[in-house]
Amino acid sequence: MTGLVDIVLGGTFHAAILFLVAAGLQLVFGVQKIVNLACGSFYALGAYFGITAVAVAVKFGLPPVLFFPVLILAGLVIGLVGLPIERVLRTVYRRDESYQLLLTFGLLLMFQDVFRFTWGATPRTMDNAYMVYGTAQVMGVQVPTYNLLVIAASIGIALALGLFLQRTKMGRIVRATAENRDMAEGLGVNASKIFALVFTVGCMLGTVGGALVVPSSAASLDMAVELVVEAFAVVVIGGLGSMRGALAGALIVGLMRAASISIMPEMELLSVYLVVVAALILRPAGLFGKVAT
Amino acid sequence: MSEQSLDLSLTTPVKRTWPRVKGVWVLIGLIAVMALMPLVASPYALLLLVPFIGYAIALFGFNLLFGTTGLLSFGHALFLGVGAYTASTLTSKFGILSFELIVLTSAVVSALVAVIIGVLCVRYTRIFFGMLTLAFGMLFHSFLFKFYSVTGGDQGMRVLRPLLLGMEWRGGKTAFLTGPFYYYVLALLALLGVAMWRITQSPFGLHLKAIRENAGKAAYVGVQIFRMRLAAFVISAVYGGIGGTILAVTTGLADPELAYWTHSGNLVFMAVLGGSGTFIGPAVGALAFVLLQDFVMAITQYWRFVMGGVLVLLVIFLPQGLSGAVEMLWSRKGGDK
After folding, report:
1. C-alpha–C-alpha distance, residues B183 and B246, integer Å
2. Is the model's pLDDT at B165 over the cut of 50?
3. DSSP letter at B207?
4. Most buried in the list A119, B7, B233, B302, measured by CB within 10 Å?
5. pLDDT of A163-210, one tens digit each?
6. Cβ–Cβ contacts within 10 Å for residue B237, how many?
């Protein structure tokens, strides 16, 4: 029983992070029709920047207990790099997908060396911030309270995003642009602005995800390319372009990984890809996807 | 060269006023030059050319899928991995050293793997095909990475020096790679390159181009889309496997990084760098990539930044790649006259 709770909690924590990055990927794909390989770089960027931000904040006398909001803030601030990057991506919106993939692949490569240059090649960790909030008892299992905070934050962000897209005027405009860009423009929507907004929000989701993960694990140069494939797995399972798909996919991937780590470690990633392949055979469009052709 | 031009990005086709040079002649010229290279080039340069030959073969296959059929695989490194691990398993586990046998086995194994994956993948096109192939590539990579007992995990597996034409070659590793092995794989490149030229010019190649241009219309006039795409996928996998075998023999090691998705990304990079719309483009791209990477790595540790920057600029300003640029220069010259 405790083993199961352990798996569920660990998996949900991982899923909470994965959801944020995958939601960014889905948002950008849904509106701009670009599969952004650089989402992993945003995630790594958030992680590295989060470490620096908390270190600076602590130096200026911030009580360690407040590092959680600092991390979220750091993620949101550094997410603004999405704006200039969107300007670069703008050149390929109407081009073939292979060029869009390649462009973001190029960005991914460049980011990796930006990290190497700024933060060095050795993995960076955040010292003893993880346990500031202590641990909590959940059904007889000790978990770091921080993990629960992250899960709560991720749920909060998911709800906020859902409300924004479904209930606000801006959200409606974003959805309309996603549905049919030309028609939306015909009705007076400034699509360029919407694209810039959506990409920046998508980027922020990634950077916040990275910032939130870093107290529990190190920031390293490989984290970007490793996360990309996991985020891909999430969106393929959930269905490309669907937010609910991102949620379901993140939970499946997170739980699957947690389960295989404790049952059969060598299957850790293999199990994820097996689910991906199975999902594609059984439900080609993903759980919540539209048509895949 | 223009038969296969893939106008993905140019809205108006480039006027071609210069005499058409067939891709196969460019290939033969390139091979002739390379055959003379050992007379003038340093062993170091030759050592760079051997992996180039491996990549060039793999890219001929890759481009049958990408340039000719219009399917972008983002997991093609999988087959390079299959070829490399076939070579290492045969040489270090079974003691089979005949290179002909290794290449044949790689081709067969790659084809078998490709049939299974292809049946599942080729129903999809565009981004879905790319993501699916990426998933399969990573599936294979995590298998290589985690199952130490079979694959050696992150250590990889050694590839022993093979026998060429049943003969054992003595001497240092460099002497072997730049001497007999160089000529052997160059001959292989010539053979497979000409074969690929024949394939793209055959009715089968025309079917593939028709599918690329408009799958619906192609199906209407009787092209068996699924079968044709699958065949293209399998052929490209065979080329990939053979290329991977050559790479593995060159480094003496089959390691999981060969199958990692960023390696697949590099293959796409090479194809676009040279120009996927032409027959010879991807091979030229492989050469440019290998030389560029070596050059940049020598001057800075931040070579990924430079390569990534080159890729970004290439995509934005020169989507037709190097061969596209040459073609444009030529046609401009022709226009002046």
Report:
1. 12
2. yes
3. H
4. B233
5. 888 888 888 888 888 888 888 888 888 888 888 888 999 999 999 998
6. 31
Domain ranges of chain B: 2-10+23-336
E-strand ranges in chain A read: 135-138, 141-144
Q: What is the CATH number of domain B2-10+23-336?
A: 1.10.3470
Q: Chain B closest CA to A107's CA: distance in Å?
A: 6
219-238 in A: which are within 8 Å (CB) of B? 225, 228-229, 232-233, 235-236
Half-sphere exposure of B143 (CA within 13 A, CB side): 14
Q: A22, A250 in Cβ contact below 8 A?
A: yes
Q: Judge contact between B287 and B52, C-beta under 8 A.
A: yes
Using a CB-CB distance cutoff of 8 angstroms, which residues of chain B are in contact with residue A242?
Answer: none
Query: What is the reported pTM?
Result: 0.83
**Do the Cβ atoms of B74 and A292 come within 8 Å?**
no
pLDDT band at A293 (very low <50, low <70, confident <90, very high): very low
Number of H helices and E strands in chain A, helices first, is 12, 2
Q: How close does chain B come to A138, measured CA to CA in Å?
A: 32
Contact list, A112 vs chain B (CB under 8 Å): 304-305, 308
Cβ-based contacts of B311 with chain A (< 8 Å): 102-103, 105-106, 109
Residue in B66, B134, B145 nearest the CB of A232: B134
Q: Of B21, B47, B35, which Cα lies nearest the Cα of B291? A: B47
Q: Do B24 and B5 contact (CB within 8 A), yes or no?
A: no
Domain regions of chain A by residue span: 19-219
Nearest residue to A219 (alpha-carbon basis) of A97, A82, A43, A73? A43
- Across the interface, of B72, B268, B302, the residue whose CB is closest to A117 is B302
pLDDT confidence bin for B21, thresholds 50/70/90: low
pLDDT bin (cut points 50, 70, 90) of residue B17 is: very low
Q: Which residue among A91, A102, A107 sits closest to B272, beta carbon to beta carbon?
A: A102
Find the helix packing angle between B281-299 and B261-274, rounded to 10°: 110
Tell me the chain B residues in contact with residue A228 when contact means C-beta distances shorter than 8 Å. Answer: 261
- B315: nearest CB among A92, A292, A293: A92
Rounded mean pLDDT, A52-81? 84
Closest CA relative to residue A215, chosen from A267, A153, A269: A153
> Which chain A residues are Cβ-neighbours of B74 within 8 angstroms?
101
Q: Do A292 and B302 touch (CB under 8 A)?
A: no
CB-CB neighbors (< 8 A) of A111 in chain B: 308
Tens of pLDDT, residue by residue over A129-164, are: 777 777 777 777 788 888 888 888 899 999 998 888
Return d(Cα B281, Cα B2) in angstroms, integer: 11
